[in-house]
Amino acid sequence: MSINKVKKLLVIGGRPTINWYKLFKNTSIGNYSIEVEFTMWDEMVLTSYSDSGCIISIMPSKYAIPDTPMNTRRTFQPDFLLIRGACQGVYGQDWKNELLGLMYCGIPSINSLESLYMCLEKPVIYSKLLQIHKQYKEKFPLIPQTYYPSWSSMSFNTGFPLVAKVGTVHAGFGKMKLENQEDFDDLVSLIALQNRYVTTEPYIKWDYDFRIQKIGDHYRAFQRVSSCWKGKGMNQTDNDVPVTDEYKRYIDLASKALGMDICALDGIHDPITNKNYIIELNDSAIGLVQRHVEEDLNYIKELVLSRIKQIYKL
After folding, report:
1. Quick one: 274 and 135 in the same domain?
2. If you ran DSSP here, which 8-state letter would residue 274 be given?
């Protein structure tokens, strides 16, 4: 069968050292070849037209991989998106408007652009998880949380110690442990200077945290021990653990509620009560564990190709 048609796949964000061009080289579905382009959010310019779709221009990349077109300017219309980088981060990292431009034209994507839009604000994700918890109770053990829309509403707390999270946070940023009322009052005084919401949850002195990863129909589970209460630090170790029926139930319920094909659910284990607590759900921008990167990238590739075939009936 001769191949003379093209479907254009755009991968946005994630680790810039991953060679997506190599991963999808010589890939085809039926008589369509799959051509990939990669960009970081800040290297992309787009315009969306109601009658002619989304036009994307990618600037030459400072992360250019040899023997790829990353060092040149490219302009094209994508047929499918794979979103591997969060479109919001620390101060100055906000590509919500670009996400809206992609949604404007309804470009099919993994994860869905609607789920990515919901993930712009962690309270929205938590509300979906809370609905699951209300239905399944202890079979979906979500950590209790309090939401404050502004500093002026922070007149009452639920006891100490607490973990406070300012706005939508990633990778440990915007997160504090509050030991007493004085710490809480200090946080209130800082929030009063900015337009941010705050969530708080009880601090649990965990013995390990866990992550359950789902890529399509493939699952992994990890447990991590760390000297840092956030779970990140110099003295941390993580190990592969079996995907128990309990872990699988957690991630299946969460991914279904938010329509996610690629996601990871994070939680902690309380050694005193021997209970798990689900902390948060992460979207398709999840990092991959280094020892499994090659295998997991192939799972992502298979998922993307399957979805393109399904959507375009190839």
Report:
1. yes
2. T
- Residue 103 forms part of a structural domain: yes
Measured CA to CA, the distance from residue 267 to residue 281 in angstroms comes to 9
Domain boundary among 88, 110, 132: 110
Is residue 304 assigned to a domain?
no
**Domain total in the chain:** 3
Are the beta carbons of 280 and 266 closer than 8 angstroms?
A: yes
| Interval 141-200: pLDDT, tens | 999 999 999 999 998 888 899 999 998 877 778 899 999 999 999 999 999 998 899 999
Quick check: is 297 in a domain?
no
Residue 235's identity, in one-letter code, is N
Q: What is the value of pTM for the model shown?
A: 0.93
Q: What is the pLDDT of residues 236-290, one digit of tens each?
A: 788 999 999 999 999 999 999 999 999 999 999 999 999 999 999 999 999 999 9
Q: Are 132 and 249 in contact (CB under 8 A)?
A: no
Residue 241 lies in domain: 122-142+205-291
Pick from 202, 246, 238, 241: nearest CA to 220: 241
User: What is the rounded CA–CA span in Å between residue 283 and residue 269?
Assistant: 22
Q: How far is the CA of 199 from the CAs of 71, 126, 166, 169, 177, in angstroms?
A: 42, 10, 7, 11, 12
Nearest CA among 80, 149, 157 for reference residue 121: 149
Residue 300, sorted as left (phi over 0), alpha (psi -120 to 50) or beta, turns out to be alpha
Asked if 130 and 269 sit in the same domain, the reply is yes
Q: Are residues 21 and 43 in the same domain?
A: yes
Structure tokens at 293: 């990167």
CATH of the domain at 228: 3.30.470.20
